[in-house]
Each structure stands twice: as structure tokens, then as C-alpha cells.
Amino acid sequence: LGLLGLVVGGVYFSGFGTTNTQEQQEEAGEEEATEQSLAPNIIIYGNWQAKKTAVKAYNMDTGNTTVLARIGDDIKKVSVLSSDNLLFINKTDSQDHGKELMLYSMGNKKGEAVYKADNGFGIDDYVVSPDGRYIAVWEVRFPQNSGILRNGSSRVYTAEIGKSGKNRLYDEVQVGQVPVHYPRGITNSGEVFLDTFLPNSGVGWAY
Questions:
Q1: Which of 34, 53, 78, 177 is least enclosed, having the fewest CB within 10 Å?
Q2: Which pLDDT tens digit goes with each residue over 152-176?
């Protein structure tokens, strides 16, 4: 399905950063550090139902499942941007490449295209900054009658969600054993981290 599984929440270790040793704690009658959850642990996932994608939230504390959205079945990689907004690759083709990134409001059940791929290219992947402001997008174009990126084109862009325009970081043609770049992370300041990718006879190989 290609939907992003996301665990929201964290574990806090009380006593972290203190200098007391275990013996000193025992002498003082203090309890050892324990683990406790700072927030409910939620798993976001999706599955297909009647030509729709149901995006769901599973609460690990209560065991309850909530449907967050029902959207089209030609999507992949759903990210949670806020308590109301989802971001996903929309209008995917037979090669699993999308034409746009859609910002979807769970409140009014409406979507807005916030990023569009170049003509002839499709969105293979994207990463979003922790604050949900910036994205780095990987666009690809396979050679005609090919199902892999070998001898194809690869572009990496950055953009600010909700604003027009995008900034091209890489525009490459994959040749021989020369890998191309794709984004692995983007910070709240817009700094991008990339890996390199070399196609093979299958889906490819990330360096």
C-alpha cells in the first residue's frame, strides 16, 4: 500500500541526567527510574476498502481504532502534519509515481494540491520537516517501456507547503554505475539530507 506507519508518542526516563548512583538512591530510600508514557501511543496506518483508502489511527493504550479519512485508492505515503491535516502522494500511476502532493483536512474532508510534479515526471517519494513546513521531493522519469530508473531522469526539489514555487537541488540522468540522489530528511530550517540510489534489475539499491 505504501502508506506511512507512524508511531506518535515517546518514553520518558525519570531521573535522566542526574548524578545519583543506584547505591545512593537506595540509601536515600528513592525508587529506581521507571518508564512512563508522555503521550498516547498511536499507530497511523491504512488499507483499501471498496476502492477507497481508509486511513486509521490505532490507540495502543485503549485498543480503539478511529478512521481519520477515506480518500482515493491512487495514493501512497500518508504523513500526519497536524491534528487536522494529512499529506500524501496523489494520483499514482501503474509505476507507483504520483502527479501531486495533496494536503487533506480531516475536519472538512477536502484536499488541496500543494505540490505538482514536472511534466513527464512522477513523485516517487518525499520527506517533510518535523514542524510540517518544508518538504523535499524526489521526482523521477523512467525510460520509455522500462519499469526501472536505469538510464532515466531524477530530480530533487524543496518547497514550502502552502506556498507556490519549488527549488531544484538536483537534475540528473542515471548512467551506468553512477547513482542519483534522493532525499532522506529535511530540517525545520530547510536543510536537506540525501542518500544515493543505483538502479538494478529490481526495485533499486540505496547506498
A1: 177
A2: 999 999 999 989 899 999 999 999 9
